[in-house]
Amino acid sequence: MWNYTQASCPSSGGLALFMLLFVDALKPDDPWFQTPIVVYTTCICLGYTAADNLMIATHVPLRDWKMVLHHSIAVWACHNVIAGPTLQYFVNLTLLTELSTPFVNMRLILHTLGHRHSLLYKVNGVAMLVVFFLCRVVTVPIQFGALRHMKTGEVYKLGTGALINISVLTPIMCVLNIFWFIKMCKGAYRVLYVPKMDTE
C-alpha cells in the first residue's frame, strides 16, 4: 500500500525534530506556549492523512481496521490542534513519529518487489525498528505527562479538543504503536534469525 503520509514525513518529522532540539521555549510544563511551526506542520500531516483516508475508502484491498482507526484519530487530532493550538510540546512529540514512516513504507515496497531476503531489506528493517522505537515507543510515557495538567485544572481551560486529544486519542494511538512495534520485533526475529537456524 502506498501511503500518502510518506510524502509528508521529511517535512513534518524533520520540523518536529528541529523544534524538539532547538526551540527551547517548547516545554511540557507550559501548555499555553504556541509556535506557528507546530500548526503549520500539523496542517501538512492533516492534508496527507486525509488523502490517505481517501485512498483507503476507494480501494477495498487497502482497508485495514487498525489503519482506518489510526488515520481517523489522526485527522480528528490534527483538527483539534489547528482549532486550538495548545499543549504543543506533546503535539510535537506526535508529529515526531512521522520520522519512522519512510522506513515502514520502504519495507512494504521491498517486500512487494520480492526483495525480502536482500541486505537492503534487512538494513531498512533494523533502521525501521530503531527509529520506530525511539519515535513511537520511547515517547509513550512522555506523552502521558500531559495528564499532569489535569491535576492543576489547566487542561480544562485549554478547550474540549485538547482534552479529547490527551484523554482519549493519545492513549489509543499509543496502544496501536506498541502493538505495531511488537509485530515488528517478531518480524525482525524471523527475518534475521530463523533462516540461520534453518540452515544449521
Number of DSSP helices?
10
User: Helicity level, as a percent range?
Assistant: over 70%
Distance N terminus to C terminus? 35 Å
Low-confidence stretches: none
**Strand elements, count:** 0
Strand content: under 5%
Please tell me what the overall shape is: globular
What does this structure look like?
It contains ten helices and no strands. It is mostly helical. The chain is globular, with a radius of gyration of 18 Å.
List keywords for this structure.
200 residues, single chain, mainly alpha, 10 helices, 74% helix
Give me the secondary-structure topology.
Layout: H1 5-22, H2 36-58, H3 65-83, H4 88-96, H5 101-112, H6 119-137, H7 139-143, H8 148-152, H9 160-192, H10 194-199
Helix pairs in contact: 1-2, 1-4, 2-3, 2-4, 3-9, 5-6, 6-9
